[in-house]
Amino acid sequence: MRIRFWLWVPLALFAFFAGLAAYMLTQEKEQFVASTMIGQPLPDFALPPAFGALPGASKADFTGGKPRLLNIWASWCLPCIAEAPQLDALKAQGVEIVGIAIRDRPEDVANFLSRYGNPYSRIGSDTISEVQLAIGSSGVPETFVIDAKGLIRYQHIGDIRADDVPKLLAELEKAR
After folding, report:
1. 6, 24, 123, 130 - which has most CB atoms within 10 Å?
2. Is 18 among the domain residues?
3. Rg of the chain in Å (alpha carbons)
4. DSSP reduced 3-state for 45
5. What residues does 71 pair with on adjacent strands?
6. Which domain holds residue 83?
7. What is the CATH number of the domain that holds 128?
8. Is 57 helix (H, G, I), strand (E, B) or coil?
9. Helix 106-116 × helix 78-92 angle, to 10°
10. Domain for residue 58, yes or no?
11. How far apart are the first and last CA of the chain?
12. Phi, psi at 58, each rounded to 5°
């Protein structure tokens, strides 16, 4: 009788873990990983230009003056193509946008900008995603509202859609 009990233990453990896995698969998941840097200052960084036509980007570009957008993107990113018209719309409304190109080559950045437009005042090249990770970005594209003191005020995860533009403009206004 005692031996039979121990024969059922592996089956019971398997059933427990299968049930636990099934339960976890049915629970609602958070789709995006929000940055823990919201409300924190930008980390120190100085990135070289992503290509020759525009200067690179640094923390100093976000202090003084007015709030700006920091857009994390890449030429190989399909959602970055989708958000290009909205970035142009924001630029047309007077928003300054600083870009950081992630793991990109200068010729690919130049080609992307010539095809889809260039809303950026400057673009830094983050070849090893060091700055991207330091600000809490988990992917591309992501856009951050940075106030005039260099504090991260808002994070928009994913591509910017037309209905996101008013929200970003409101967040820029709140960051004044």
Report:
1. 123
2. no
3. 22
4. coil
5. 99, 143
6. 46-174
7. 3.40.30.10
8. strand
9. 60
10. yes
11. 76
12. -150, 170
